[in-house]
Amino acid sequence: MNKKTRLKAIRRLKILEGQVRGLQRMVEDDTYCIKILNQSSAVKKALCAIEDLILENHISTHVIEQIRSGKEQKPKNELMEVYRLCRR
């Protein structure tokens, strides 16, 4: 992972960590269920955004490099694995 993407991912993960702690507090404090569900949805979306960032970095660096060097099977397999993960 390139340095810029790594720093961005770490920053977002720290924010996500705070969101999850807030979600835990909401449950402990017996907050209204709809508010908890809204926060839970925000946490899931934030995690998806981090996954997108990492995947974009992987494709634009590792996959492109492998294709350029003639190693087409490995990136194809990796992309299929990502596709299967996304369909779960």
UniProtKB/TrEMBL annotation:
InterPro entries associated with the record: Metal_Tscrpt_repr, Metal_Tscrpt_repr_sf
MF-aspect GO terms: DNA binding; metal ion binding
Transmembrane regions listed in the UniProt entry: none
GO BP annotations listed: negative regulation of DNA-templated transcription
Top-level taxon of the source organism: Bacteria
Xref: Pfam families: Trns_repr_metal (PF02583)
Annotated protein name in UniProt: Transcriptional regulator
Lineage of producing organism: Bacteria, Candidatus Uhriibacteriota
